[in-house]
Amino acid sequence: MGTKKVKPTTSTINPFSDYYEDDPDYYNPCDDKYYDPYDEFCAIYRDNPLEYLAPDGDFLSSSSDWINTVYSLFRFFDKFKPIYEVACYIIFIINIFHLLILTRKELRSNLVYMIMIGVGISDLVQSLGTMAQHFMTLNIVYKIEDCGESGAYRYDHLIVNLVAKSAQVMSRRCSSFLALYIAVIRALAILFPMIQRVATIMKPAYGFLMMIIVLVSCTIWSVVFFVLTEFKKILTCGNLYRPSYVMYKFQVDEQFKYPFMFVDGCMALFVSFSYVILASVLVVAICKAEKRRRSLGSDESSNASKLVTIMAVSVFISETTYGALYVVIYSFDRQYEEM
Hints:
There is one protein chain. By secondary structure, the chain is mainly alpha-helical. Among the domains are: 85-252, Rhodopsin 7-helix transmembrane proteins (Rhopdopsin 7-helix transmembrane proteins, Up-down Bundle), CATH 1.20.1070; 265-294 and 301-339. The protein is built from 11 helices and 2 strands, in the order H-H-H-H-H-H-H-H-H-E-E-H-H. Helix 6 (111-135) runs antiparallel to helix 7, helix 6 (111-135) packs parallel to helix 9 (204-228) and helix 7 runs parallel beside helix 10 (254-295). The chain crosses the membrane at residues 83-102, 111-129, 178-195, 207-228, 267-287, 307-332.
């Protein structure tokens, strides 16, 4: 037996009115309130929504097994989201102190430290984006109501999310390319220390010019993401709940969304593998230099090779994970369309 709906006593036009049945017994049979554990349809729908999309058994095929595996991985990694959000607050504080040190007069005139300032600012923006999105979910700005639609929020909430995500797209690419640029100039300085042209590009003016080029390029890339994203008004909630405000959610043109993610993922993978190659060259060159010093009777040791290795491993893990995730999402979408 259903529950009777009470029409609101207000002159304001209800944007949901055209999408609700007049029948007072209209309800969602798979909601917790009405759920019958012996209902085969609801059991499939609640346990695995993807299997519900192919009830004829297609999910026994290899391609469907692949989709289910990827879907399970996404749900698994989503459990670590609270840890990531807390980590962003910690990284934000660390980056503040890091920038206070790098912006000292005696350091900011050095090319490498100048680029590191750019990397620090990019990481700061990345953390701020996550913090802003997390803050909007704390029910401080407004009370979030459950609509049964994933990613459905008030309009101003989505504006904050879109600006934050666009800034993160820009800052993430800036940080990775600037880190790669540091590896390039360090490799050139060690491999070709006597070449005048290398000494010329090591000047701070060239580093500042490169930072501007990277910033402009990455900003254009993030603007593409911003333009491709639209807001879709939610006129009917999945759980038949009528919120006190109109909800919206992101809607990206499928024709551009996944190719954008694929290209962004490929850029991350390019930076990752390029950094590892340059770091390997650097480590070999540093080891040879230390060997020459020892042959000349110098006992002075250096931890440069260890630091380069640690940096290479950290960049490889972060960029490869990010890039592989986006490439997998793209493959997931292609597999799903072929079913």
